[in-house]
Amino acid sequence: MKKFDFYFLAMLAFSSLTGCTDDDVDNPGTGGGEEATSRYIIAATPVASEGVADYLLTASDLTEGSISTTGNGVEQDGTYRYYVTNNNKFFSLLYGQGNPGAVTTYQLDDKGNLVMLSNFQSETVQAFAPVNDDVLMMKISRSADSPVANWYRLDTETSQIVDQGQINTAELAPEGEQAFFSWMTQVGDKVYAPFFTVKGCCSDTFGTAYPDQAWIAVYSYPELELETIIEDDRTSFIGRYFTNGLSVDEAGDAYAFSSGVAATNGVISSTKPSAVTRINSGERKFDETYLFDLEAASGGAYVTNHIYAGNGNFVVTMAEEKTSAYATGNKIAVINVYDETFEWVTGMPSEENILSITTNNYVSEDGTVHIGVTTEESSYVYNINVASATASQGLEVQGGNITAISKLDPIE
Amino acid sequence: MQYTNLPWIFLLCCMLTGTVFSQNQRHISGVVVDSYGVPLNGATVILKELSSGKVTNGQGEFSFFGNFSGPLTIEASFIGFGTHTQSIQNLNTENFPLKIILKESSFELDAVTLSAKSRIQEIEALAFNVEVVNAEELHNTTLDIGHALNRVSGIRIREDGGVGSRMNISMNGFRGNQVKIFVDGIPMENFGSSFQLNNIPINLAKRIEVYKGVVPVGLGADALGGAVNIVTNSFDKNHLDLSYSYGSFNTHRSNLNAGYVSESGFTVQLNTYQNYSDNNYKVKVDVADLNTGQYFPNQNVERFNDVYHNETVIGNIGVVNKSYADRLLFGITLGQNYNEIQTGARQVSVYGDRHSRGNIIMPSFKYQKKNLIEGLDVTLNANYNLGKEEVVDTVHRRYNWFGEFIEYEGPGGELSNRHTEFENNNGIVTASVDYKIDERHSLSVSNVYNMFDRETSNLLNANDDLYAQPQQTNKNIFGAGYQFEEENWSITGFAKNYNQVNIFDQSYNPTGNYGDVAYRRNKDHFNSFGYGFAGTYFFTDDFQVKASFEKSYRLPEPNELYGDGGILFEGNSNLKPESSYNYNLGAGYWIDLYESHLVNIGGNIFYRDSKDFIRPVLNQNQVYQVMDNLSDVTNLGFEAEARYSFKNLFSAGANLTYQNLRNNTQFEGAQTQESVVYRDRIPNIPYLYGNADMAFNFKSPLNTSHPVSIGYNLLYVHSFFLYWPSLGSSKLEVPEQLSHDLNLTYTFGKEQNFQFTLECRNLTDENLYDNFSLQKPGRNFSGKIRYTFK
Fold first, then answer.
1. Which residues in chain B have their CB less than 8 angstroms from residue A269's CB?
2. Are B450 and B191 in contact (CB under 8 A)?
3. Whole-angstrom Cα Rg for chain A
4. Which of A16, A396, B72, B490 has the fewest CB atoms within 10 Å, i.e. is most exposed?
5. Considering only CB atoms, which chain B residues are within 8 Å of A124?
């Protein structure tokens, strides 16, 4: 064999190996038309073994059509990301416990393209919620050695942290345990922070000796000074780890959702049913007369997530068996907390076919709830009509689990 | 030759072995030495009457089998030595083995065409796809073993930063522990942090053998993607090698390598080395304001928590060149290291106080005897590491890249409040036996046994029984192989048994009552078989073709099952072994042009089909890496290399590797729709890269007895995407990288005992990245002075 032949072969091999690749993706931006209309933001994680952050896609309509992450969407750094929208800005938070991460702020430009506004550094937080024009963030320790929660107040105008402070979480909890905020909700001009208590030690970090107790810490804003702790022993704790359990209706009454999934040594130890309770507007205690037992209403299921759709209507995600404090359900129902009615939603894919249901969903102005669902076939936005408790399959998101649905208006 | 027929030929050979060979076999053996009695490796020995030639091995030995009858003439020659001719009148009365002494040539050597195979070429002539780095050529440089490997075709060393930073070897698409590393044939598993690629100086090595794909049975281990065998200097006579270097970022390295061999064969050997660096090179980062979170983009800042140092002593005592042993050594390796941790898995995480330290206390035993009985070579090695590793993160602060920090009250850490210490109680026993039945047939058997029993203690909370639970792994790999050799072709076939038992505890609640914790003993057992073939054929003396195939397994390592104690890896005790089918086809061509111009070109095409690929992913919290069985992967690629040299004066070479790593997982989990990234390129792995080098050797114009050498090295890595190439319209990528290194060596002294080397790495001060865009040092300089005595 001659030298020349070898090189020829090598070149041939090279060109045939590279010829079939399609790495040079050169598609234009993230959708966006000429006219400036508001657009839905859909965060989708590619279904792939290699951990990848969500791609941020945009769509003008959630009821039909199909979009894909292939050659489309804003790529983000990192793997796990979480989102909050406030002041017409979309914040993407990197979750890395113990490490700070970059938070990226996006907005919609006048052509309807999703554009990055800025990056700023934030601690990894376990709870974050819009309060006025801020995003309040909370980094909560799970260690008995340091029972503290650090809070940060993010100004959405400047995308900068303008204030921060520390909360002693041991002081909120009974002796030997410490508080862990499930989430935070603005109620009037206060911040209500439901919490569960944890041991933070001894091989049972998230276990508790108080599985049948609900607590809400009430803070002033923006000072975050503790005003009172509201307690209730009719349910277990409100909300769940990384999950909001408190929503306010048009009348200013706050409805609290308890899953009844407190655990001790990894085993569910709550004896109270999953239920909705209420704190009436302006009051600092649970309404003793109100308890909507969801387990009784549903025939044994418990709530894992909720979203408020107006007029006392909530769309809830339900699960059957309490196996873990972190499991999420595959069944969707509509409840009305005024009438205490419960109705399973029809038109959803069969329960067995559902691989996951998005937790960060969106409610339109007309009360339609848009929920992300990943089935064995693909991922879809399901649009839920609350009045009729029916769901219809809408936008398909190819090749990605939907992790969040939101909406932005274009800036002027 | 039809490669599809190889298995049949192999089977046929097996059946014929017992019957074909007649009884009139004669054996002529001998040893070729220089006038000091030192064996000559690579000398040519010719039986003139039969026009049959042999090349001596590392012990200077040669042998001929055949239907001989006397008288015969033996002619031995070696570059730089005169030719020796000797006649054998009567085969029955002659004393074998013969001792042939060659005298050094007195005349000035003209460039000699290498007709005899050196040890290095001899290994490369094997059926396996192997490349040999002559480490001695690099002894003047300040390279550690890892950076020397980075210059080998097909290999990429990925690292986190400067001196002492974590290194990860990647070879033809395999990476990390899929590629096994050996020192003198002993697997370098769990030697601890004090004895690793990133701190062993190149001077410790004589040569480095790089097996790509199929690995010979003699290196008995669960290598999947190949193996690197670092062969250390085994001097048979007194020697001393001393060097010291100083370079940018306050980097000091020194190395002492000394040995004494008495007339009787008693020997004492000592290797000590030390590395120290502040690693305070500049990086370009976005620096956050600790209070507002605002980023100051593209700041050039110095690394400030990255001091690394290690000190290691390796001592051996024993005998060499005895009738019962070529080598019988008892040794101990003692060492320690200290490593400050500047960043997390990504550069955005910056630390100011986190650090780790470790030590190694490892007694060892080495025994080697060739021809214990005629044709039987035996090797036995054992070692046990009593060392400890310690991870410290007890300063409750948040740092930014300016080195500013906020101090928080109460106990805590930068990442997590931690101070743990663990002993791995790791031991390895390897044994291999090679038996050369006759000139053509040989058998090899090898066995490697590993034990691992980690004891961890939490120094912050002594009562924490989470850490008191057993974490054990016992692994045994047995291999048997057969080789058939002809004048211009050879074939080998082998089978391996893989066996692993993992014992660990999982916590559970036995009663369901509050506060009950008990531990359930888990015992995982894996047992499986792998096999392979390799063949080579010389069309002419200068043109060789190789082919090999293997089904192989790679078992999870203890660190992958149980974590590394909180530095970087979290454990995953559910990790399954991964398996792979490997196919290789390679060719090499040597051209001897007129007047001492030598050209050598080679290439290799490979294909890998892997299941349960073990890959690092970030854990749920994105703080630690955790190993997981992930996508099935195929990889079709090639590597090509070309070298040219003119006499001793000039040499140049280049190599290029392309690997087409594709995701072969069609359906993810329970999904019925084809994955969007099915057949997409695996992200965050370089797929086109290469090296080029050039060297000029000349005499110093000031003093003609002082040689000067100038070398240049180029490293190229094509840009690659951090995430799946087909997804998204705006992409994050690691840009194309080109780095240039220059070095100059000046040799002086009466017997050319002194060498002075100046090196500049990353000459053009490029921003170089690796591993999820962690930045590496910019332009840096170092000087090295070396003294050798042999």
1. 514
2. no
3. 23
4. A16
5. 621
The answer to whether residue A70 scores a pLDDT higher than 80 is yes
Q: State the Cα–Cα distance between residues B327 and B81, nearest whole angstrom.
A: 27
Kindly state the tokens that stand for B559. 């660190």
A-to-B residue pairs, Cβ atoms closer than 8 angstroms: 249
Per CB-CB distance under 8 Å, the chain A contacts of B728 are 25, 55, 69, 71-75
> Looking at residue B17, what is its pLDDT?
34
**By the CB < 8 Å criterion, does A168 face chain B?**
no
Chain A residues in contact with B682 (beta carbon < 8 A): 50
Q: Using an 8 Å Cβ cutoff, are B366 and B381 in contact? A: yes
Q: Chain B residue closest to A2 (CA)?
A: B589
The correct answer on CATH 2.40.170.20 for the domain covering B120-789 is yes
Is the separation of the CB atoms in A405 and A381 below 8 Å? Answer: yes
All residues at 6 or more sequence positions from B571 whose CB lies less than 8 Å from its CB, including other chains: B471, B559, B560, B561, B562, B563, B626
**pLDDT mean over A218-228:** 96
**Interchain CB contact of A144 with B (< 8 Å):** no
User: pLDDT averaged over chain B?
Assistant: 81
Task: Using only the alpha carbons of chain B, give its radius of gyration.
Answer: 28
User: In the prediction, which pLDDT does B59 show?
Assistant: 72
Instruction: State the average pLDDT over residues B512-528.
Output: 70
* Cβ contacts of A120 on chain B, cutoff 8 Å: 288, 292-295
- B515 vs A264: CB contact, 8 Å cut-off? yes
- Whether the per-residue pLDDT at A370 is higher than 50: the answer is yes
A212 shares contact with chain B (CB less than 8 Å): no
- Nearest C-alpha neighbor of A57 from the set A27, A87, A94, A98: A27
Chain B's closest residue to A211, CA to CA, is B514
- Report DSSP state, residue B203: G
Decide if A258 contacts A274 (C-beta within 8 A).
Answer: yes
How many residues does the structure list for chain A?
Answer: 412
Residue A180 CA to residue A148 CA, distance in Å, equals 9
Q: Give the tens place of pLDDT for each residue, B241-251.
A: 898 999 999 99
Q: Enumerate the residues of chain B whose CB falls inside 8 A of the CB of residue A122.
A: 293
User: Cβ–Cβ of A119/B295 closer than 8 Å?
Assistant: yes
CATH topology of domain B25-106: Immunoglobulin-like (2.60.40)
| pLDDT tens by residue, B198-240 | 777 788 888 888 887 777 787 767 777 688 888 887 666 788 8
pLDDT tens readout for residues A225-237:
999 999 999 999 9
Q: Please report, rounded to a whole number, the percentage of residues in chain B having pLDDT higher than 90.
A: 23
* Least confidently predicted of A267-271, A295-299, B202-206, B689-693: B202-206
Q: In what order do the strands lie in the sheet with A254-258?
A: A246-248, A254-258, A275-279, A291-293
DSSP summary character for residue B557: P
For A281-326, the pLDDT digits (tens) are 999 999 999 999 999 999 999 999 999 999 999 999 999 988 777 8
Count other Cβ atoms within 10 Å, centred on residue A223. Answer: 10
Q: Which residue of A has its CA nearest to B591?
A: A3
Query: Can you give the pLDDT at residue A43?
Result: 94
**Touching B: A residues 170-189, CB under 8 Å:** none
Most B CBs within 10 Å, among A121, A143, A146, A153, to test the B interface: A121
Q: What ipTM is given for this predicted complex? A: 0.79
Tell whether A350 lies on the interface with B, counting CB pairs under 8 A. Answer: no
DSSP state for residue A294 in the 8-state scheme: H
Is A48's CB within 8 Å of B515's CB? no
Determine if the pTM surpasses 0.80.
Answer: no
Please tell me if residue A97 touches chain B, with a CB cutoff of 8 Å: yes
CA angle B24, B29, B34 (to 5 degrees): 165
What does the domain layout of chain B look like in residue ranges?
A: 25-106, 120-789
